[in-house]
Amino acid sequence: MHALETVFAALWDQYATLTPQAHEIRTLLVDRGEMVVNDHVAFRTFDDPRLGIDRIAKPFLHLGYEAKDTYRFEQKKLFARYYQHPDPSLPKVFVSELLLSEFSQELQDTVRGLIDQMPDGVMGKEEGLTMGRPWSVDSETYERLAAESEYAGWMAAFGFCANHFTVFVNALKGFDKIEDLAAFIEENGYPMNRSGGLIKGSEEVALAQCSTLASQVPVAFSDGEKTVPSCYYEFAQRFEREDGTLYQGFVAASADKIFESTDRQR
Ligand code: OOG
Ligand code: NI
């Protein structure tokens, strides 16, 4: 087995446990005779040098991935980069990081306190990608972080895992348009993220995307269990550009809304 297949299999196992709906939706598609191909897998982190984007990307670069375009999200105070492998059958890897220095001193101190609990040297290795939450945190701290940044709250609760896998819609035989797939998923009882509209992007920007709302799962905080949004499933349809090749990048305005799939629903 290719080393990368092992990495993605471990990531999927962890993700499917955290995100029961992803396994269920995948099964719905497979039962219709579809081959489910992953467009990309996404990771989140903080921009602290001990675990920033470069650390998350390191095992992927080591296994042949190449760094591609970067994206900036002003309001959410995030930076992201995607990585691609020369073998087009492998999913792209999208990594974002929260820009800590742009937040309140309180958030920065809280997050640095969490990171200080981490064992040294695991981030940057394959095992780091599925490490889960390497710190102890109470539910009040989670809520306080999430009130300032939903992303910070999510990171505090879940740590390191695949934030989402993404179905490559072009590879599905039974759905010509992403709108049809979105309707199918919703009809089967999975609420979708409607921030910025059900379908984000379009043929004009060569990428159309939609995603479910994250599963609600019990998380063991240091002061007890609490049910919070975990991970979501995404769907992406890519279009040809003028040069006849399929667009491989991302669209910042769409991604900005996709991030909200893990927001706490109030
Ligand atoms: C990433 C959101 C952006 C995309 O495909 O544009 C994204 C996240 O929620 O961590 O996945
Ligand atoms: Ni994505």
UniProtKB/TrEMBL annotation:
Signal peptide location in the record?
A: none
Which E.C. number(s) belong to this protein?
1.13.11.93
Enzyme category, top tier: oxidoreductase
Q: Which UniProt keywords are listed?
A: Dioxygenase, Iron, Oxidoreductase
A molecular function annotated in GO for this UniProt entry is: dioxygenase activity
Cite the Pfam families for this sequence.
HGLS
Tagged with keyword Cell membrane: no
Q: Which cofactor does it need?
A: Fe(2+)
Recorded hits in InterPro entries, A to Z, give: HGLS
Q: Where are the transmembrane segments?
A: none
Q: Which protein family is named in the record? A: Belongs to the 2-oxoadipate dioxygenase/decarboxylase family.
This chain belongs to the protein called 2-oxoadipate dioxygenase/decarboxylase
Species for this entry: Parvularcula dongshanensis
